[in-house]
Amino acid sequence: MHNSGLNETATAPTRTETDRQGPVGGIRVGALAYADLPLVISIERRSFRSPWSVGMFALEMSKQDTIGLTAVEDDRVIGYLILSRFDRAWHLMNVAVAPEARRRGIASLLIEEAIGMIEPRDPVTLEVRPTNQSAVRLYEGLGFRAFGLRPGYYPDNGEDALIMWRGDPEAAGVPRESFGEIPAGT
Ligand SMILES: CC(C)(COP(=O)(O)OP(=O)(O)OC[C@H]1O[C@@H](n2cnc3c(N)ncnc32)[C@H](O)[C@@H]1OP(=O)(O)O)[C@@H](O)C(=O)NCCC(=O)NCCS
Prior knowledge:
By secondary structure, the protein is an alpha+beta fold.
């Protein structure tokens, strides 16, 4: 991933805001709105080497079949997610949590909420830097499994991307070439 709201007019499933109690009590998950972008961009810049611009968020939010969510605490956005559908599969395009709010289950909450909005049998995929072990562990904990590598995917340092899937892409008719290149010896 990286380098990609809920579009109010999207055909993607919509949801109402929920208040979450329990381990992430006090967090509201809601639809990403254009008015959230200044705070989203501030988190984005503190989270990624090659942060998305406002225009990149706006482009994703304008698309059909895009789900954008925010996690809000005390009226402040502290995390966000973008999940978009391409053909048969949903792609987790972007997820980040403000550095001071990490390790409280917020990314897990956002991903679970978004996955709860799509058809249960729809597979979900993402790309992640293999060196981003926080994210790899997060995804593994949510049932994503490594399928292969996309060589030289990240333009800033030429790092390969690890491709992960949740669900069975083949069963959903996703072409095998989308799975990624399986490294020798695996
Ligand atoms: C990756 C990221 C989104 C995780 O957000 P988060 O809200 O802190 O994640 P959660 O609290 O839901 O963590 C769930 C699990 O992921 C793993 N995890 C998350 N951060 C971790 C870390 N720093 N070290 C090790 N494991 C970590 C753990 O297994 C954790 O469960 P635990 O806390 O019970 O051990 C956040 O660190 C972030 O915004 N990073 C920068 C942006 C980024 O890399 N996004 C992903 C791009 S692919």
